[in-house]
């Protein structure tokens, strides 16, 4: 029994050493992401205090044994509020990226599959949305929909749809040239069945891009909360904590530094995890050869319409494989 346990421990250590040597970026990113997600999931147990308890007698206390990262202007524990703020960021990012991923995948794959006028119309609509800077589009959508967390999720999700649709279109165009898709046509499969069973399962590399979209979603949510368009006080959010802390940088710098570092490590973790997954799943990236067709060389969340059409193919052109 002890020999089996020892052997299992040795194999686990050997696997960890191998993963660290080959995929350091992936391991570091995964550790940071797990830490952020665990903080958001178990915030009620990890936080030493309630994020809403006000104690004016302890306001602006520097870091000490009772409050490891100090207190804010209302005497609330900064560590507890930072941990609970991760819950808002992860929740908004999860819903927003899911909306963008599903919506963009459907639009991009349908546009590439049917081609022609439908492809042109859908891609021109995506380029129209893509032409607006992301934060400006988010502010406009929040002004129309209203300022709350649900609308922030919807606004950020809409921002992600054009980017994912471009990637899905490019990937679908590549899949459409494969022989198994032509075989599906030959045996008389319906369009919906071909899309669902022959095309969509082979563009799963969009999941890699979704990891980096998570990082951008966290930044957008924090930006909206910083501007007062996301989570409203006393609800803790990294953005509104930064906004309230900027007025105390000389007197109590920990009010801005602590949530800022938390957001930094969260965004860094999702970015590193996305890069690591891409290196693992795309051997061309790992060997340092020419960049892949999708994803990686298209700045899908830059908020600019000046994306190379050579990579994606101009809708309706000869590069857009219509049936």
From TrEMBL:
Indicate where this protein is primarily found.
membrane
All copies of the ABC transmembrane type-1 domain together span 86-274
Q: Where in the cell is the protein located?
A: Cell membrane
Q: What is the species listed in this Swiss-Prot or TrEMBL entry?
A: Candidatus Segetimicrobium genomatis
Can you say what this protein is called?
Answer: ABC transporter permease
Transmembrane stretches, start-end: 25-44, 88-113, 125-143, 149-168, 252-277
Membrane: present as a keyword of the record? yes
Q: How does it sit in the membrane?
A: Multi-pass membrane protein
InterPro entries, alphabetically? BP-dependent_transpt_permease (IPR050366), MetI-like (IPR000515), MetI-like_sf (IPR035906), OppC_N (IPR025966)
For this protein's source organism, the top of the classification is: Bacteria, Bacillati, Candidatus Sysuimicrobiota, Candidatus Sysuimicrobiia, Candidatus Sysuimicrobiales
Query: GO cellular component annotations, sorted alphabetically?
Result: plasma membrane
Q: Which family is this sequence assigned to?
A: Belongs to the binding-protein-dependent transport system permease family.
């Amino acid at each position: 029994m002890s020999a089996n346990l020892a052997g299992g421990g040795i194999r686990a250590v050997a696997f960890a050493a191998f993963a660290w040597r080959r995929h350091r970026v992936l391991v570091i990113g995964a550790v940071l992401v797990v830490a952020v997600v665990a903080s958001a999931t178990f915030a009620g147990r990890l936080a030493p205090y309630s994020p809403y308890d006000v104690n004016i007698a302890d306001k602006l206390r520097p870091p000490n044994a009772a409050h490891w990262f100090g207190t804010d202007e209302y005497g609330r524990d900064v560590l507890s509020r930072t941990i609970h703020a991760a819950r808002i960021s992860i929740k908004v990012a999860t819903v927003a990226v899911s909306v963008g991923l599903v919506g963009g995948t459907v639009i991009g794959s349908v546009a590439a599959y049917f081609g022609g006028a439908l492809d042109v119309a859908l891609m021109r609509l995506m380029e129209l949305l893509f032409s607006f800077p992301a934060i400006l589009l988010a502010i406009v959508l929040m002004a129309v929909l209203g300022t709350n967390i649900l609308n922030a999720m919807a606004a950020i999700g809409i921002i992600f749809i054009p980017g994912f649709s471009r990637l899905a279109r490019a990937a679908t165009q590549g899949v459409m040239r494969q022989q198994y898709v032509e075989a599906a046509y030959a045996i008389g499969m319906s369009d919906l069945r071909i899309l669902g069973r022959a095309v969509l399962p082979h563009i799963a590399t969009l999941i890699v891009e979704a990891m980096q979209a998570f990082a951008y979603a966290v930044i957008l949510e924090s930006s909206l909360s910083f501007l007062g368009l996301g989570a409203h006080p006393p609800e803790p959010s990294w953005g509104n904590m930064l906004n309230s802390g900027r007025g105390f940088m000389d007197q109590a710098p920990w009010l801005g530094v602590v949530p800022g570092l938390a957001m930094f490590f969260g965004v860094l973790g999702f970015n590193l995890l996305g890069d690591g997954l891409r290196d693992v799943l795309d051997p061309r990236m790992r060997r340092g050869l020419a960049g892949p067709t999708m994803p990686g060389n298209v700045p899908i969340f830059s908020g600019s319409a000046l994306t190379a059409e050579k990579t994606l193919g101009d809708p309706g052109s000869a590069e857009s494989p219509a049936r």
